Structures are given as C-alpha cells and as structure tokens.
Amino acid sequence: MDLTEFNIVKTLELLEKRKFSSEELVKESLNYIKSLDPKIKAFLYVNEELALTLAKQADEKRKKREGGKLLGIPISIKDNICIKGLPTTCASKILQNFIAPYSAEVCERLSREGAIFIGKTNMDEFAMGSSTENSGFFPTHNPWDLERVPGGSSGGSAAAVASRMGLGSLGSDTGGSIRQPAAFCGVVGMKPTYGLVSRFGLVAFASSLDQIGPIATTVEDTAYLLQIIAGYDPKDSTSAPIEIPDYVKFIKENEKTSYKIGLPKEYFESEIDLEITKILMELIEKLKKRHKIIEISLPHTEYAVATYYIIAPAEASSNLARYDGVKYGFRAEAKNLIEMYKKTRAYGFGKEVKRRIMLGTYALSAGYYDAFYLKASKVRTLILQDFLNAFKEIDLILTPVTPTPPFKIGEKIFDPLQMYLSDIFTIPVNLAGVPGISVPVGLTSNNLPVGIQVIGPHFKDELVLSLAYQIEKELDLKLIPPIVNKS
User: Where does 3-265+389-486 sit in CATH, by number?
Assistant: First the structure.
C-alpha cells in the first residue's frame, strides 16, 4: 500500500468500497513511522497497540454500517493537545511523565467520528519556537532535507503529514505555528478564526492568540477536518456560538468564483528570498486571469513582531506559573518549598521558555506595564483595524508565509531575533484573530517547499479555503519528499 497515493477523502471512499481495511491502513501507517521516523523524529509517542485495536473495531463498525466521518483514519496530534490516558508533555521535561486525565474537545469530536490517534507529535517546548529545535527531547528534521528544520512549533505534525506517517494532524498556531511548518514541509496548514475551534484541552501558551487547526496534504482534507473540529463549545469561554457552513461543499461550489484579492505592499517590501518571490509572482500572474488583484496597505505590519513578543510572553508568564512541581509534572527534590520551585523550573524548562517567561514577567511588572503591555495592546488594536479596513474593499489577502525556505538545523537557534523574524508574515493574523492558510505553491532549485498564505475576514474561513482550493487546482502539484519515495 502506497500512502503517497491517498488522502483522507479518497481513503474514506476506498474503505467504503472495501478496497482495503482500516487495520491494513493503520498497519501501513505504523510501518511508515517505523521506517521513516528514526530519521525524521516527528513523534514523541506512538500509540501502536491501541491504534491497531481501534482499527479492528472500525472495520467491525463499517461492516454494520455504523461509524462516523473519519472512521478508521489514522491522525496524529500535536503534543500540547490532550488525549485522555496518553502522554501530553508539550515537549517539555517539566511534563515528561504527565498523562492527560481528559481529552481536548477537538479530540473528542475526532474520536466520535471514528478517527484513530496514531501518536503525539514533537514540537517546540510549550509551542515556543519556529523550528522544533526547542523541543525538550530532540529536534525534528524536515523530510525534504534532513539537515533542515521542519518549521515550528507544529514541526512534528507537519513533518508527519508530509512524510505520510498518518493522513492528517492537528497542530496549534499562536504566531504561525501551523502555517510556517506547513510551508516548510510542503503541506496545507490552517489557522482558523480565533474562537471558531474550541481551545478546551489545549495547553495554554498565549490564550488570546492560541488556536487549534488542521494540517493535511490537500485543501479538501483540511476543510473536511475543520468541519469536524469547528463549532461552539461551552467549556471554552472564547468559543463563538456561530453556525458552521459546509466547508467542503462551499469550496467545490465556488471553484470558479472570482474574488477581489489584496496584496499588502508591506509584506512584499520585506527581505524575501528571491526564489520565493519568483514562485509567488508567477502564481499571482496566473490568478489575475480570474481574480481582481490590487495592492493594499496594512500600515502597522512593521510593529507586529515587536507587539507579539510583548503580548505572547506576558500571557505565557501567567499561564506557565502553574508548573511549579506541586500539583503535577516533574518535581525536584529540595529542602524547602522555595528551593523546590527553583530547582523544578531550572531543570524542567528549556532556554527559550525561560527567556519568554522572563520577558513576559518584566513586561507585566510594576512600572513597566503601561510602557510595554498596555502599549502593545493598543498597537494590536491598530493591526486589527488595518485588516478590518482592508476587508471593506477586498475579499481576501495573499502574502508569503515565510521570508526564506527551510533553514538548516542550528542556523538560527542561537540568534533569537533571527528566529523570531521567521514568523514575520504569520504573526499579524494571530494578533487580529483572522483566519489564514498556507498552501504549497512549488519548490525552490534546492527542492525545498514554498507556501503562499491566504488571509480572510473573521469567520469567513470558507472563503480562505475556497481560494486555497482554487490555487491547489490551478497548480496541480503533488509534493512527495524524496525520503518517502526512497523508503
């Protein structure tokens, strides 16, 4: 069984026609993991025994005409999203032995539809990073070039999907953590509108920015997964009580629809790799045949990274205060309580997490709150207003996802500022709370994937998916990393 030939929607059709069983599918997925993951290191935990048991149960349900929309489909989950009874470490030593006592709402929804969780994927510790080098256990490698990063923080999920170790995944996106690794690994990754998908059971990094979203090999699969996980959840106070459209139906019915698309000049004036610019401009020329494309301005874009690195660390310093060795996770041996706090956090947290906790605590401290956090919150409002103004005139926005192709492991890890700039094009979307998606648009001369970002208005995720679907159809790419073909 060649998993490069399958996606979620096609596989469901083949399972219905009894071309193969869920057990055979899951076994093959696990074989891919055994073959490829020693080199890629996308997984922190593989759920082999339970996955095979669930696959057998899925086959029995299918015989009885029972089961849901993902019956028997192997899916991986980023390791900051809880699954009851399985490890949830956030790739941090401070949660090394933590077993989730409950499941995230998104996992409950996938499970009710028959999805099989094959494992938990590696990530930057507590989702803080752009390369998955900040994992507390080991870095993940890009399946297109093992010497390069897969992006972050959902690097394990993107690498797993790209190398067909499972047919889809869920990641989380706080400043680009789904879209950037999706672009680096040549897959589709979507950050939904803030509030569209429940955050219940997602380990918090920056609560006003975090959003769970799907990663898949096609836009249709991404829409299919979003359909299942989207919707109101009373357990999440930020969840929006809105009606969810049929995303798959919408993108197919609007395959020929023309949109008014904005190209923000601030994104294209940045220092972007020449090959990325060339690939994106070639695509934009093709899109001009159907769509009206105009230059727009998002004038506060230049302040987005600085704003983000005050707001996100400030929220993180508050959210991560709970990891003190008292209730759960790692606890260091010590003579007294204060020493236990210090030793637990000194060992349990990695350098990047400590850096962000200190930045956030400083920004919130007495005498500095107004100068930093309050000012950043005001600039965030201006960035949001830029998007609201733009969407009065246009339907969607197109931008690069990343300024460079995947960089080499070790290239930026010791230069935090350079690492932070990897998310320069994705951060504004989180600050504004609007939906964004990364779609593969080609390969560089070094055979490295390039993505384009589609951004839409609040709760118009179907429009974002629609243009992404059109781009996918226009280019008709089939990106398979060489390592998969050689396995």
Answer: 3.90.1300.10
